[in-house]
Structure formats: structure tokens, C-alpha cells
Amino acid sequence: MKQLLILLCFSQVALAQQVKFTSPLDTSLWKPEIAPKENSRVYTSKGKLIMDTKGGVTVWLNKELRGNFTIEYRRTVLVAGGVNDRLSDLNMFWMAQEPGFRRHGVLEEYDSLQLYYIGMGGNTNSTTRFRKYEGTGERRLIGEYTDSAHLLQANHTYTIRIVVKDGTTSFYADGVRYFEYADPHPLRKGYFGFRSTWSRQIISDFKIYQ
Q1: 3 found inside a domain
Q2: Where is the DUF6250 domain (predicted)?
Q3: 36-45 own/partner pairs: CB under 8 Å, 24+ apart
Q4: Domain count, the chain
Q5: What is the pLDDT of residues 46-68, one digit of tens each?
Q6: Taking the model in full, what pTM does it have?
Q7: Tens digits of per-residue pLDDT, 28-48?
Q8: In this structure, what CATH number is given to the domain that contains residue 157?
């Protein structure tokens, strides 16, 4: 597949700004939802997005994505003595239906949405799970790993890739396919969001390919 770097309706200038995560954070392009906890914040530094949070956090891309596409980016869970450092929860939502950007980062607030969800190294780095939220409160489990090969390494920069193509969605970390799901009732449009809780993480080099 010929991969052309695009951001759907955004211009190339806007795309370059997004990839670099300009300072301060462009809140027209990115919509942070963060639990009201002490010592929690979302900010940018040196072209990277930092989520440094005691509670839950979601940072949405404010653009509905449609059709076939690939999302790719780099992400590190830091464990270096920071107040919120914890090896857990390299998570993300995609194809979320009408998120509204009015929540406060608490995971249960998203139960009313239809979406796909990866929780990589969740539950204090004991599980990696792929779920489909049905919009009814059901978080349907599609697949799960508990072995160390599919859990997180501290301070390792992962290349994350999500592929949506013709009703099938796949998740890769460092080129290894963890999950692939041919959904009989696929979500064909929706929003992408970085998701985590109680951790410090760095995100960079965000791209979307058509």
C-alpha cells in the first residue's frame, strides 16, 4: 500500500505541527481529559507530548477518522523516580463514537461510548488486553496476554501501530502484531485518543497514513 502521510482534512502545515506537538499544547487539535488529582498534568516539551498523571487521562485527537488508515507513533513509559512514575497502562482508544470531550479522565466515564481499546501493560503491568466497548457499558474482551513478552519494559520507546482496513483492526508494538480482529459489526469512523492512568509517559512522532 502506498503510504501517504496525511491528516485527512488538515493541511500539511497543520500536520507538521501535530507531529511535533507544538508548545504550548494546541488545545484546538488535542483535547485533554484529566482526572482532578494533585500532581497531574498534560503538556508538551521539545516536540513531545508528556502525560504525567496521578489519575486517569485521555488526550483526544480532535478529528473524526474514516475509512482505511494506519496510526503510528512512539511512546515510552518512564520509570526514573518521578512522583507519578509507575510501569503500567500504555493505553489507547480509537474509532470512538462522538466522545464529546467533556469527561474527566475516569475510565468508567467512557463506558457509554462505542470504541476499540488497547490496555498494554494494564493492572500494574500484569495484562495486555484488547477490548471493544459496545456503548452499553459492556467492555467486550477480544484478546489478552499475561506473558512478559507482551507486557511493558520500563523506559523502552515502543513504536505503536494501529491499522484499520476493510472492517479489520490490528495492533502492533515494535513491528510485532499483538491483535487482529475482523469485526462482524465494525466501527467505520471515530476518534483516536491516548489513554493512561497513574504514570509518566512521553509520546512523539505521531503520524496517520491513508
Answers
A1: no
A2: 52-206
A3: 36/104, 39/83, 39/84, 40/84
A4: 1
A5: 999 999 999 999 999 999 999 99
A6: 0.90
A7: 999 999 988 888 999 999 999
A8: 2.60.120.560
